[in-house]
Amino acid sequence: MVTGSQPTADSACRIPTAASGREFFSAIVGYELTGFPAGVHVGLPARSLTLIVPFGGATVVSGDALDGAGRPLHEPTPFAGLIGGIHDLPVHIHHDGHQTGVQVDLTPAGARALLGVRAADLAGRVISLADVLGPSARRLSDRLAEAADCRSRVAIVERHLIRLLGTGSGSLQRATQRDPATWHAWRLLSGSDGGLPVSEVAQRVGWSRRQLTARFTAEFGHPPKVAARVMRFEQAHRLLRLQPTPRLADVALRCGYADQAHLNREWRRLAGCTPTQWLANEVFPNVQDEDGTEQSASVA
């Protein structure tokens, strides 16, 4: 238990993503959370990859995800900075009640453009940020520690990412070397929050379901059926963060679940708990950006 001042998220913030980066990262959130009970935060599945640049301490992670060497992270493992791929199981973040850093939600296109890899290469993995950014990962963390406030830290990370897009490494060129039909399939699923049947996605892109599954999995690391489950779950998670919290039956209906029992089963599979349990145990707050959009202030 952290003692002293009351829990605070005064330094949690988000700034609008620059137009030049919107295809590659959907959100950049800075956070400095203090005075909360020590414990384990559940990082929930989502359609984005997660890049975390902490400062003032490591991010400690465990779960069924694999590390850079392909080993399961069954024991809490510290990362000076990390990238988590798209996953369909929870990741556990161990904390002492104090978390500081900047989180970036990368799109699959961002993985190609900024890291030079497919989303499939990182699916179900949590790897060190230094493995992909090299020494600049440490320098970036040091710059965050020296910054005056949360918004300055977010701006530092965003400028760094924009510079990566403009480097001569060829990563941006690799991002454009994509199979149009595969990415159209992703946009169809994502645009419907996983609600469009996989058979209809296959029909719209002109492939058999088997072709779609093979090519989609090769690019994104999960078959379209699993990706759709994650997207539907993410929509439910987003709705449950609203205030006041909506009724679970309404969330189930809005997200395309058969009923509340179906919603609960999917949450147990993807989050390891029911929505009610998650709401009761999640202590980190949400923050709002200037236009009032809700955004989680916790990592993952």
From TrEMBL:
Record's keyword terms, sorted: DNA-binding, Transcription, Transcription regulation
SUPFAM superfamilies membership: Homeodomain-like
Regions annotated as coiled coil: none
Gene3D superfamilies found in the cross-reference section: Homeodomain-like (1.10.10.60)
Domain of life: Bacteria
Pfam families xref list: HTH_18
Domain HTH araC/xylS-type: 198-281
InterPro entries: AraC_XylS_family_regulators, Homeodomain-like_sf, HTH_AraC
MF terms (GO), sorted A to Z: DNA-binding transcription factor activity; sequence-specific DNA binding
Entry-linked PANTHER family: BLL1074 PROTEIN, HTH-TYPE TRANSCRIPTIONAL ACTIVATOR RHAS-RELATED
Protein name: Putative AraC family transcriptional regulator
Native source species: Microlunatus phosphovorus (strain ATCC 700054 / DSM 10555 / JCM 9379 / NBRC 101784 / NCIMB 13414 / VKM Ac-1990 / NM-1)
